[in-house]
Design goal:
The chain has 3 helices and no strands. The protein is an all-alpha fold. It is elongated, with a radius of gyration of 13 Å.
Amino acid sequence: MNNFKKYLGAIVVILGAILLFCSAFTTLHNYNGVLVGSLVIMFAGLLLHIFMGKKI
């Protein structure tokens, strides 16, 4: 379980990038909500990666 916590931030960043990548090939790139949502997910993953790295 400790290994999973170690990489949780990176996994969340990758999920945000996948959302952004998938929206580029569909018609979802015209909607600001999807773009802002992926930005928020990636930023949260970055912060999570930093804070979890300091704790472990």
